[in-house]
Write a structure and sequence with these properties.
Layout lengths: L16 H17 L3 E2 L5 E3 H7 L5 H6 L1 E4 L5 E4 L4 H10 L9 E10 L11 E10 L4 H18 L7 E4 L3 H16 L7 H9 L10 H8 L10 H17 L4 E2 L11 E9 L4 E8 L3 H4 L7 E7 H10 L12 E5 L2 H16 L4 E3 L6 H10 L4 E5 L1 H6 L1 E6 L5 E5 L4 H13 L7
Parallel strand pairs: 1-5, 7-8, 12-13, 12-14
Antiparallel strand pairs: 2-4, 3-4, 5-6, 6-11, 7-9, 9-10, 10-11, 14-15, 15-16
The structure holds histidyl-adenosine monophosphate (HAM).
Histidyl-adenosine monophosphate binds next to strand 6, strand 10, strand 11 and helix 11.
């Protein structure tokens, strides 16, 4: 058992992790050019934060949280998502004091105890952004455009946008009444969880995964028919801004999202080829107050990076691969090893990927290793080389060789040899 990763988790090892770094960099860069700054919050928070933030009738809180008592008897929970922690950090650190909007992003692991399947893990990685202090519909459109821009830069081809408005507490009062009436007529067919949610939060039934409840939910009243004038006007403007940008979207009146904090605009980014959402988000104008701050309109999105990577792999995206070793310096004997150690240090100071033998191996094994890591050039150091202060650098692809200094002129000679191998002009310093 101790040699296997826990169910629903995965290792990212060299060969894969470089691709992840590139993908994450695209999202971080997108956030930064839009004026967002990174927030790093703890992996665990007080359980109460998620009960209040995410909502105690959600699947996440009812079924999926990794909650435990620490040695001091406090109940803590591994974060199932990033928004609640970002709101807490924004309030606790008084980020609003510098004026609104406050724009944060994060790239974090999250934890949900789910039944593992394709695209559903127990530890998954999320990239998210949160914007605090604006109720303007242009901000909703801006966030959707930002996510799409990052998908585009990654070369993802089949990401859609599903859009809905789930209104505010005012318009939801009437809607909840209509939902209760509708679902009460089907009460005997609903699953146990949905039956228990009927009184507490009937909108959650719309998000149930049970096939029977899903089918019943298809005939349920639609929130879009119950929006108050302000919410309706907000939604129209969001759509107008997206139209102005030429963003294609699909209105999905059944989209309610799985977390309780949302108000007004909600959206998801479905991947057509994978058949599930790569991310989702929306407005949560009541959450900051719920967590103890002043009433503050806010919005954001979270993207499932494991799913984004799946989508990239599915369409055979070419990544540049790991950084390739430029020069491997093989050595024979202790004095030569020390020389190799110093020369590689000199190369590293100039950002040149290079390596030497750290395992005390013989020359043959060292050359085999150089082959395995696909070193572009090799240099062998022995007694003769140390005595003459010169050694032969070999181009592993063509077999051509040049003699270079391994003393003061080493770096300059090395660059000269590379220029000759690659057939470009090089002027020594
Ligand atoms: P969410 O839809 O629960 O929203 O999660 C965001 C994304 O995380 C999902 O669309 C999916 O790609 C990924 N995800 C969720 N659960 C799993 C899982 N078990 N395995 C793999 N990937 C998963 C949120 O978490 C909100 N905090 C998003 C947000 C930010 N809304 C406003 N601000």
């Amino acid at each position: 058992m101790i040699t296997k990763v826990p169910k629903g988790t995965q290792d990212l090892v060299p060969g894969k992790s470089e691709n992840w770094q590139i993908m994450e960099e695209v999202f971080k860069n997108e956030a930064e050019i839009n004026g967002f700054g990174e927030v790093r919050t703890p992996v665990f928070e007080h359980t109460e934060l998620f009960l209040r933030g995410v909502g105690d009738t959600t699947d996440v809180v009812e079924k999926q949280m990794y909650t435990f008592e620490d040695k001091g008897g406090r109940s803590v929970t591994l974060r199932p998502e990033g928004t609640a922690g970002a709101v807490r950090a924004m309030l606790e650190n008084g980020l609003f004091n510098a004026g609104y909007p406050v724009k944060l992003y994060y790239c974090i692991p999250c934890y949900r105890y789910e039944k593992p399947q394709a695209g559903r893990l127990r530890e998954f990685r999320t990239f998210g952004v949160e914007m605090f202090g604006t109720a303007e519909p242009v901000a909703d459109a801006q966030l959707i455009a930002m996510a799409l821009s990052a998908f585009r830069r990654l070369g993802l081809k089949d990401v859609g946008v599903q859009l809905n408005s789930i209104g505010c507490p005012k318009c939801r009062r009437e809607y909840h009444k209509a939902l209760k009436e509708y679902f009460t007529a089907h009460i005997n067919d609903l699953c146990d969880t949905c039956r228990s949610r009927l009184d507490r939060n009937p909108m959650r039934i719309l998000d149930c995964k049970s096939p029977v409840c899903k089918k019943i939910a298809q005939g349920a009243p639609k929130i879009t028919d119950y929006l108050c004038n302000d919410c309706r006007a907000h939604f129209e403007q969001v759509k107008g801004y997206l139209d102005a940008l030429g963003v294609a979207y699909e209105i999905d009146p059944g989209l309610v999202r799985g977390l309780d904090y949302y108000t007004r605009t909600v959206f998801e980014f479905p991947s057509k080829s994978l058949g599930f959402a790569l991310g989702g988000g929306g407005r949560y104008d009541g959450l900051v107050e719920e967590i103890g701050g002043q009433p503050t309109p806010a919005l954001g999105f979270g993207l499932g990076l494991d799913r984004v990577m799946m989508a990239l792999e599915e369409q055979h995206t070419e990544f540049p691969g790991p950084i390739r070793c430029e020069l491997f310096i093989a050595s024979m004997g202790k004095a030569a090893l020390e020389k190799a150690f110093l020369l590689v240090d000199e190369l590293h100071k100039c950002d040149i990927p290079s390596d030497f033998d750290q395992c005390g191996r013989g020359l043959k094994a060292q050359m085999k290793y150089a082959d395995r890591i696909k070193a572009r050039y090799t240099l062998v150091l022995g007694e003769n080389e140390l005595a003459s202060g010169r050694a032969e650098i070999k181009d592993m692809a063509t077999g051509s060789k040049r003699t270079i200094s391994i003393e003061e002129d080493f770096f300059d000679d090395y660059l000269g040899a590379v220029a000759a191998f690659e057939d470009f002009e090089y002027e020594a310093f």
